[in-house]
């Protein structure tokens, strides 16, 4: 069957292109390669099939659809209407709130990304030297285990606007402030509060990756380092630990970029969507607002594409940065 | 040059890999500081209502009571469905999602790890790595449209199936399977074992730490997920614990029941803490392999 099919393609090809024997030969060659691969690996392709099908339906297709929808007007009631780059023009030239969202997201990402990353590594490095490692790990990882919605109730109490709020109470007691601060409604404090909460919860997956990476550095390397004249822990980290842990560090960097640009849940829970004067408005909050409150799917898709492009470029930069260092 | 005594001590610590007492003190303080919200959560769940609105506010509970849990049950009684329904939904969705995604990702990771020269393997893995780089929110809208088109809105299928093909899980399993010696698989092949048998009887038992880790991440992620059930469900019967929680804690016209909210926070968080404590050592074994090789 397959052979006949391959021959017929080859014949068709040579007919449609007079004197194209070389073309037909390459196609024939290609086809036989495919056949060989199938013969050798068909069980393996079957192993991958269920995952690939779901991956295409629920990951690849949504990305392609998002890109298409971003060029349309679509309110979910009428079929999408092609409007070219209008969404993008509106987004960048007229939507002041989106500019605020980008600004907030970038500020958030610049602070929590690198800082959370460094804190994770530093804490992992110290924990690795302690006894009762599992206990310390649990203590630092626990905030990441909690459901955002459950923990946000606690944050709301910590940062409550009146003097019943724990932070206000403590600061008044210490004499730092005299009147309670409206942390979650004041424009100037919303973003800092979101950043503080996120840093508090930043010991997540990357933190565990770093811990495991530290445990996997061979002891002999440290001993060799001492012989070679390494004097202190700092030198040891720079010359031995970091180079060995490059794969984990890259993984952590990619995670940090993705997570810090996708900031939404904490912001939405403590400040609401939309937040007072859009002070806690992020790109994903904007996407959520248009997609699931206003039902302007085309516009929301354009926001999604912009976020994807930003994350992807930074992710590629991180990949390049880490592969050059080695 | 003479080495000072202080430096000698530091060097010995470096050699023996011991932490100084100072490090223990600082790290313990930091750990306690990080734990504050959790401690507060546990303590508040047992506070009687009077203690919750004390001024000055008190961090720890003085007269612990189970009244909040009773209030939680009463609060939920006024909803269309009982608490057990939310709990059942959460347990079912998290268990099936984590179990099935482990099997699917492991099956797909095996060829990528053991036959990297298989045509298409490189391309596929490249796509997986890129998929890892974009936030899931990016694809929420089209995914909603697809789930809607497939008629899976407001069903358990809708809550489970779209989350099964995660790039993170596949990636984790592939890294771990790559560490297995190829000779083991070759030997089994010589003995006449099929790939299917090799996978289930040799590979999977050997990478047990990897898939246990994946189960933890997937279970906790699904358990805590607020966004997916929010947009993929409509009826109260299909909602999960995080959505129930947001029902109790506020919304327009709802008088927040602080006792019930405090109890619910603990109820939702407890399972994830227990699972992590029980399975933590497997996490430590696995994560070293999840670095990206560049």
Strands of chain A, total number: 2
So, CATH architecture of the largest domain in chain A? Orthogonal Bundle
Residue fraction in strands of chain B: under 5%
Counting DSSP H or I runs of 4 or more residues, the number of helices of chain A is 15
Q: Structural class, from secondary structure content of chain A?
A: mainly alpha
Main sheet: strands, sense, barrel of chain B: none
Helix content of chain A: over 70%
Q: Whole-Å distance between the termini of chain B?
A: 43 Å
Folded structure, characterized:
With 326 residues, chain A is mainly α. Chain A folds into 2 domains: 2-69, no CATH class; 95-325, MetI-like (MetI-like fold, Orthogonal Bundle). In chain A, 75% of the residues lie in helices and 1% in strands. In chain A, helix 4 crosses helix 14, helix 9 (205-215) runs antiparallel to helix 12 and helix 12 (246-261) runs antiparallel to helix 15. Chain A is flat. The two termini of chain A are 51 Å apart. The model of chain A is unreliable at 1-20 (pLDDT under 50). Chain B is mainly alpha-helical and 294 residues long. Chain B has 2 domains: 5-65, no CATH class; 79-290, MetI-like fold, CATH 1.10.3720. Chain B has helices at residues 5-16, 21-45, 49-52, 67-77, 83-114, 121-133, 140-149, 156-160, 167-178, 182-190, 195-206, 208-224, 227-232, 241-249, 258-287. Chain B is flat and about 75 Å long. In chain B, 41% of the residues are buried. The mean pLDDT of chain B is 81. Chains A and B meet through helix 2, helix 4, helix 5, helix 6 and helix 7 of A and helix 1, helix 2, helix 5, helix 6 and helix 7 of B.
